[in-house]
Amino acid sequence: MSTMQYSFRLTLNDEQDTQNLAKTLSKCFTEGVIYLIGDLGAGKTTFTRYLLQALGHQGAVKSPTYTLVEPYKIKQKDIFHFDLYRLNDPYELELMGIRDYLDVPNALFLFEWPSKGGDDIPDANIVIQIEKSEDDVQRFITFSLENAALYECLKEKL
Predict the structure, then answer these.
(1) CA-closest candidate to residue 82, choices 50, 38, 45
(2) How far apart are CA 66 and CA 14, in angstroms?
(3) Rounded CA gap, 28 and 126, in Å?
(4) CATH number of the domain at 6-157, please?
(5) Mean pLDDT (the chain, rounded)
(6) Which family, according to UniProt (predicted)?
């Protein structure tokens, strides 16, 4: 993974903060690749749920831990939520047809546990690192990204 040019840290004190952050991101970034990195229970799927809702998803968001991918179609937009936690070998991604997903134009890709995907997954436009506080109440978020315009958009709204 190449080093990202821009990065900033945020503290989320509660679910409301998480939801607001997801809303902000949904206004600035709607296609490309997001990596979500963090320990089990850090809130990667929770963040994804809020992001999908902010983009207009109605309905439940389930973690694709066993299926590896959960596709969504929201307002004519394709969104693919990958959870690679149970992936034993990146080759499994080839077998499940990851190319077909990655070839979808203008789509948004969310990857949890991207390190398990090896070279089979595309580089991230945004890396979101989520850490839990000692007492498990707060979350510390580190955003890393390449794009100056995206950085400005996020900074301005946060």
Answers:
(1) 45
(2) 28
(3) 11
(4) 3.40.50.300
(5) 94
(6) Belongs to the TsaE family.
